[in-house]
Design goal:
The structure holds 2 protein chains of 2 kinds.
Chain A: E1 8-10, E2 13-15, E3 19-33, H1 37-47, H2 54-57, E4 60-67, E5 78-85, H3 88-103, E6 110-113, E7 119-122, H4 124-127, E8 136-140, E9 143-150, E10 153-158, E11 160-177, H5 180-195, E12 200-201, E13 213-215, E14 224-226, E15 249-257, H6 260-281, E16 283-287, E17 298-301
Parallel strand pairs in A: 2-16, 6-10
Antiparallel strand pairs in A: 1-2, 3-5, 3-6, 3-11, 3-17, 4-5, 7-11, 8-9, 9-10, 11-15, 11-16, 12-15, 13-14
Helix pairs in contact in A: 1-3, 5-6
Chain B: E1 3-8, E2 16-17, H1 23-26, H2 31-35, H3 48-51, E3 52-55, E4 58-65, E5 71-72, E6 82-86, E7 101-104, E8 120-123, E9 143-149, E10 163-168, E11 184-191, E12 203-209, E13 217-219, H4 225-234, H5 239-246, E14 250-254, E15 262-266
Parallel strand pairs in B: 1-4, 2-5, 4-6, 6-7, 7-8, 8-9, 9-10, 10-11, 11-12, 12-15
Antiparallel strand pairs in B: 1-3, 13-14, 14-15
Classes of the chains: A alpha+beta, B alpha/beta.
């Protein structure tokens, strides 16, 4: 339960005196290039599909940024993708599966390391066998790539990418509006601001999650269930509802970053965007999800991130 | 601190083995000890002090002022630091070099970079035959590192190349890249007859080729993503090599008389 005793007010928007509780994660980054930005994004979107939550997807992933040709290894348009998981083993498994099924298969694509990292994760080193003996290993200055003959030419894939153990997952903000449309407009503004922040992603659809969850369930075997305290349709029926009568709809942003600083920067940008809209067009209140500080060692206090 | 300098007193009367004069082998030695090091290759003893005036300086950076085609094995087995020779050198320059940077401002003889394992060897002038190649009885030539020849290379440059990068900005003699096992060879000028003959794997890029071996077959892929990547990797080392890669107009697979999965890009 958030502490509602002393909300901060900015531009008419109430900000709960609470914090987002976040966790250590393992993460990596890729650069995907293609003949056009459109095809680079198609490959990246395909690869980061069904990657909203480690609870059911194994990995949380999203596009960090579009890259100009000058910023990519092969001089073609590209995108940078971030992937987060709870363990190195799961991250490695998801990385090879997703690149193999979604990037290797995408017309004209190539895939490179997007992070130096402290340890290597197999990328092309795990995909090369698809070439059935025709794979070519090339060590270029500062880079080792595999070249796999495919039907439109070659799939070029760097041998490894980097792993970071400094990543943080679960930064969040809960956006509450008088109406559904106001909550959505505020959440969209926040998602756009987070998307523009480097080294951070909001992995849910469009960057927004409407089914925020709590830990556990009344049903045996479920590790997460609906966050009933923030469901407006249950207000009045549940004693622990966190919503006042002024709240008509709630949406949440979940943010993963390569560093705690990246998560803080993304939350700061998201808060600023929501506050700038004001309570009539956007959110009337902003909160954050936590577990009483017992599960995650990273606490992002909203009042410390205000503009 | 300035570099440690060795000034050649005159033309040697015999071929000299300069392999002791590398930063790693001279580490910890004082001037007297250095001057006592033997360089001779005949029964007549010649020391560093006999041939060079030695000036103290940064032990990690060595400059040899004055060259001769009788100065063999310059930078051989070098591990680290920099070694610059202002003049010509003889054969086996950079032989089995594993790290650091060796710069030769003049010409080099045969077997320069023979068996190179790492580091960068730059030759401002021409080089002789078997650039990077193995000596008799060895199975492979270069196994890593970068060789950059600003001038011409003799016959069988990059012979039995196993790994690493060889750039020749000028022309190369006959059978460049012969028996290549892997790695990359770029010849910005014209290659002599039968480039890549009996190569197994690896990449050869030629500005111009007059005669390919019959075991090379034309295939598609002169504009692969890989060529962009290679050009970008080469650009910091040699603008000419990067331009040569991007100017490739045809790609051949071969040598089918060997394993046959090497590739040969040709500009004209």
């Amino acid at each position: 339960m958030p502490d509602l005793t002393e909300p901060f007010i900015r531009n008419g928007v109430a900000i709960d005196a609470t914090y987002a509780e976040a966790f250590d994660m393992r993460a990596t980054a890729l650069v995907i290039t293609a003949p056009t930005l459109r095809w680079a994004r198609i490959a990246a979107n395909s690869m980061t599909g069904f990657a909203t939550s480690v609870i059911g997807c194994g990995v949380e992933a999203g596009i960090d940024a579009d890259l100009d040709p000058e910023a990519t290894p092969d001089g073609r348009p590209g995108v940078r993708v971030l992937l987060f998981a709870g363990s190195t083993t799961e991250l490695q498994k998801q990385l090879v599966n997703r690149v193999g099924q979604c990037v290797l298969t995408s017309p004209g694509s190539a895939c490179y390391a997007g992070l130096a990292g402290t340890e290597p994760l197999r990328l092309g080193d795990g995909l090369r066998y698809f070439a059935d003996g025709w794979q070519i290993s090339k060590r270029l200055p500062g880079r080792h790539v595999w070249r796999l003959p495919v039907m439109d030419g070659e799939f070029v894939c760097e041998g490894t990418t980097g792993l970071t153990k400094d990543a943080v997952g679960g930064g969040n903000m809960i956006i509450m509006g008088h109406t559904y449309s106001a909550a959505l407009e505020a959440a969209e503004a926040a998602a756009d601001a987070v998307a523009a922040t480097p080294d951070a992603i909001a992995p849910f659809p469009g960057g927004i999650v409407r089914s925020g969850s709590k830990v556990g369930s009344k049903y045996k075997g479920l590790i997460a269930s609906t966050n009933h305290a923030y469901c407006p349709t249950l207000r009045g029926a549940v004693a622990e509802s966190a919503l006042g009568p002024e709240v008509g709809a709630v949406l949440e942003l979940v943010i993963d970053g390569l560093t705690p600083a990246a998560v803080a920067a993304a939350m700061r940008a998201g808060l600023a965007a929501v506050i700038a809209l004001g309570p009539q067009r956007g959110a009337c209140r902003i909160g954050a999800g936590n577990y009483g500080g017992k599960l995650g060692r990273h606490h992002f206090r909203l009042h410390e991130l205000l503009p | 601190m300035s570099s440690r300098r060795f000034v050649l007193r005159g033309e040697p009367e015999q071929r000299l083995d300069l392999s002791p004069l590398t930063p790693d082998r001279l580490a910890g030695l004082d001037i007297a000890a250095i001057e006592a090091l033997a360089l001779h290759t005949t029964r007549r003893c010649v020391t560093v002090g006999d041939m060079f005036r030695v000036h103290a300086g940064d032990a990690e950076h060595i400059v040899i002022e004055g060259g001769s085609a009788r100065l063999d094995r310059v930078g051989a087995a070098m591990q680290s630091g920099t070694l610059r020779i202002e003049g010509d050198v003889g054969q086996l320059a950079g032989r089995l070099m594993a790290g650091g940077r060796l710069t030769i401002t003049g010409h080099a003889g045969d077997w320069a970079a023979s068996g190179l394992r790492g580091g960068v060897l730059e030759i401002a002038g021409d080089t002789g035959a078997y650039l990077g190649g193995p000596l008799a009885g060895e199975r492979t030539g270069m196994r890593g590192g970068v060789v950059l020849v600003r001038g011409q290379a003799g016959m069988r440059a990059a012979d039995r190349l196993r790994r690493g990068l060889v750039i020749v900005e000028g022309n190369a003699g006959a059978q460049a890249g012969s028996f290549m096992v892997a790695g990359t060879l770029v010849v910005c000028g014209t290659a002599g007859a039968l480039p890549g003959i009996l190569m197994r794997r690896g990449t050869i890029v030629l500005g111009r080729a007059n005669e390919l071996a019959p075991g090379f077959v034309p295939t598609t892929g002169a504009d692969l993503v890989f060529t962009r990547l290679l050009a970008r990797g080469l650009a910091p080392l040699s603008d000419r090599a990067a331009a040569c890669v991007l100017a490739a107009r045809s790609r051949h697979l071969g040598d089918l008389a060997a394993l046959g999965i090497g590739e040969l890009f040709v500009g004209v």
